[in-house]
Amino acid sequence: MLMPRQTTPDLDLPTLDHGPFRLSAEDSERGTVICFYRGLHCPLCATYLKELEKLVGEFADRGVSCVAVSSDGKDRARAMADKIEAKNLRFAYDLPLSVARDWGLYISTSRGKTSIGIEEPALFSEPGLFMVTPQRSLYYGSVQTMPFVRPHFSELLGALEFAITNDYPARGEHAGPV
Length: 178
Description:
Elements: E1 12-13, E2 21-22, E3 31-36, H1 43-61, E4 64-69, H2 74-83, E5 90-92, H3 97-102, E6 107-109, E7 123-125, E8 128-132, E9 138-143, H4 153-166
Parallel strand pairs: 3-4, 4-5
Antiparallel strand pairs: 1-2, 3-8, 6-7, 8-9
């Protein structure tokens, strides 16, 4: 399990239009929002990523970079970026499922074609949303077992504003006996 204030696994993945994404080399002032999505087959992911695309600039105004990540290959990642008309959001692809598991993401098996007629990959990760500090420690994390009921990016922006103003630390870091 990932723990707040502890180092996250690194990510080193290709992106569609921005060269390699290396979490360890990110240089944003306050960190990186990493949105793991299920893949092109998921209509809820498209809606979710459209919301993030609209807010990339607001995150950047607060010193936070954003990236969307999936285990889809390049062609499916490009199709998703085109579908949501991405202009600002970076899309990383070819996430190894072993790395997804290192991040605590749940792995699902294919159930065939989805409601929008796109075949699910044989295996893929379920959604996760993380904010990682510039030192690569976990600040915020949320994982789902299903595509439903995801954190809202606008709420994350509001929480980020509060955290910046109040120098609010990452929480949930206690790993000792209870």
